[in-house]
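Priority: medium. Attachment 1 of 2:
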């Protein structure tokens, strides 16, 4: 190395700085540089912008040698089905003659002989592996195991957290959910309802409502038209009914006058399936059932007072009425319907009856409290289900004394129940513990087959759509939960209908026998009650009762001894008389 390239650097030890200590020390501000406003003005804000950062540099290289595919478009011109021009393809004799002439051609024969080797190889290969052999033929086939699946898909929340008062589904391909919000508690100190707006939700969008409609009073019940998906009927708190057309405006297009409507809030509202689908009827806690025509709701077309007792005079009016809590009509006879009352009765009503006995044709003492819901089986209308207090019961039109199937008691008060629209043996129930229960009478009799916790708040209403795939459930905090069911929970099996009909008939026959026996016992007691009894024997002291019981006991024992007066000996062939 040349001398001119050397450089000597000398530094004193005290200038090296402090001794290095490998330990944690607090952060120290070494320097702070303020931004320069002039330099900042030379730049502009770029929005939007994107930047990717990674700790290492991305390096990727790959080579693939693929086969070269040459594509070519080629068309074939078929004239008269591929036959020559001089051959009429519709003439069977001409085509068969041409076919025989073509088969005798040498080129055709050589082509068939050349393909023989390949075809023979394939046939021998199939025979070697026994492609069409049936394996495990000796094993008996087993029924597939049913796996039930249910999940909570979507939750539609109300910003005001109002309790859900009623739920309905529009009748269209893309069904939407119509929801009415209202607190049905009686106001004591201050009003319990402030916002009367009702919502319509689309299943695809849970962030915002599809549309809203505003009733003039708080809406207790909603019903959707079976023929017009944009037409909605509302039952109001002031007893009126109104019609909404969501295509026109949010306010009702027609409303019934208050003086001709119900005196209490509308608690039941239902469309009547008819040829024109223009009739519906409503029920209220004032004990009246009214029929309406959507073409003119200025006054009801018919009115019926619900009373299990015949009125003593025409001036009784609404004196002995039963408050209506649920309605359900018979699809086979539109003039007959079921009415659930606040006092726990279910009345089978025929509105075309000539007298009170024909109108109130049957009265069922269903529950100890208000009947929350009553629904006929969609496949077997003769049987219907009710819910109230802590139980759900299934009834038959022919048995009035008791239900044919007693449901299992729920841990808390039951809120609503609904049959599955497409499954004949199943129904769904909810109660105030926030749990959804799915029942199948053919699979499990006394317990649900699926239990799903839906909400931590009490559930109020349940409504499945027409196909039965989705189930809408509302709670007290305004949350509308959409439940999705698996296919084996939606559709019935091949034998389910026959089996459930046999099961219902067997239970109805058993209850009919018990009802007949109870009627005989009551008749016997009634006859014995009319037998004259000496008034001096009305009061009997304890000693007389004990003495009579002892005499009756000795009499029974004596009769039993007389029956076994002669018994056979153990070894002898003759009989031996035994004296007691």
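Attachment 2 of 2:
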């Amino acid at each position: 190395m040349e001398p001119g390239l050397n450089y000597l650097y000398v530094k004193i030890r005290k200038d090296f700085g402090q001794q290095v200590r490998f330990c944690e020390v607090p952060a120290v501000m070494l320097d702070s540089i303020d931004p320069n406003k002039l330099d900042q003005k030379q730049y502009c804000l770029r929005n939007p912008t994107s930047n990717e950062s990674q700790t290492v540099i991305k390096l990727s290289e790959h080579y693939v040698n693929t086969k070269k595919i040459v594509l070519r478009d080629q068309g074939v011109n078929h004239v008269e089905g591929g036959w020559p021009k001089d051959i009429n393809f519709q003439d069977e004799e001409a085509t068969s003659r041409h076919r025989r002439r073509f088969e005798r051609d040498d080129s055709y024969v050589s082509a068939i002989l050349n393909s023989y080797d390949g075809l023979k190889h394939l046939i021998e290969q199939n025979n070697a592996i026994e492609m069409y052999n049936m394996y495990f033929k000796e094993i008996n086939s087993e029924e597939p195991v049913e796996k039930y699946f249910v999940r909570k898909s979507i939750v539609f929340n109300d910003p005001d957290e109002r309790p859900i008062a009623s739920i309905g589904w529009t009748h269209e391909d893309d069904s939407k959910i119509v929801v009415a919000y209202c607190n049905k508690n009686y106001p004591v100190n201050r009003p319990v309802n402030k916002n009367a707006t009702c919502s319509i939700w689309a299943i695809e969008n849970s962030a915002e409502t599809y549309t809203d409609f505003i009733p003039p009073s708080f809406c207790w019940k909603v019903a959707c038209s079976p023929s017009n998906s944009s037409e909605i009927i509302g039952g109001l708190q002031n007893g009126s009914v109104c019609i909404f057309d969501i295509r026109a405006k949010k306010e009702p297009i027609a409303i019934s006058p208050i003086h001709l409507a119900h005196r209490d809030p509308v608690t039941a509202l239902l469309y009547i399936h008819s040829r024109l689908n223009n009739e519906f009827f409503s029920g209220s806690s004032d004990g009246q059932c009214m029929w309406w025509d959507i073409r003119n709701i200025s006054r009801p077309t018919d009115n019926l007072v619900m009373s299990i007792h015949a009125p003593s005079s025409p001036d009784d009016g609404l004196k002995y009425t039963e408050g209506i809590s649920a309605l359900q009509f018979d699809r086979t006879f539109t003039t007959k319907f079921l009415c659930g009352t606040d006092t726990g009765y279910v009345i089978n009503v025929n509105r075309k009856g000539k007298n009170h006995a024909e109108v109130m044709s049957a009265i069922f003492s269903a529950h100890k409290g208000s009947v929350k819901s009553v629904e006929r089986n969609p496949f077997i209308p003769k049987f219907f289900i009710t819910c109230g207090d802590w139980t759900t019961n299934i009834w038959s039109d022919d048995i009035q004394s008791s239900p044919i199937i007693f449901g299992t008691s729920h841990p808390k008060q039951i809120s609503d129940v609904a049959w599955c629209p497409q499954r004949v043996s199943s129904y769904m129930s909810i109660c105030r513990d926030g749990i959804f229960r799915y029942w199948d009478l053919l699979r499990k009799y006394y317990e649900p087959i699926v239990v799903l916790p839906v909400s931590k708040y009490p559930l109020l209403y349940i409504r499945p759509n027409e196909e039965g795939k989705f189930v809408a459930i509302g709670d007290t905090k305004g949350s509308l939960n959409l439940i999705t069911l698996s296919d084996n929970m939606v559709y019935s099996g091949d034998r389910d209908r026959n089996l459930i009909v046999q099961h219902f008939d067997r239970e109805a026959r058993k209850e009919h026998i018990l009802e007949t026996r109870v009627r005989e016992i009551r008749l016997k007691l009634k006859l014995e009650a009319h037998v004259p009894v000496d008034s001096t024997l009305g009061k009997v002291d304890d000693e007389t009762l004990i003495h009579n019981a002892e005499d009756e006991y000795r009499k029974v024992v004596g009769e039993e001894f007389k029956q076994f007066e002669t018994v056979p000996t153990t070894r002898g062939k003759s009989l031996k008389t035994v004296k007691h």
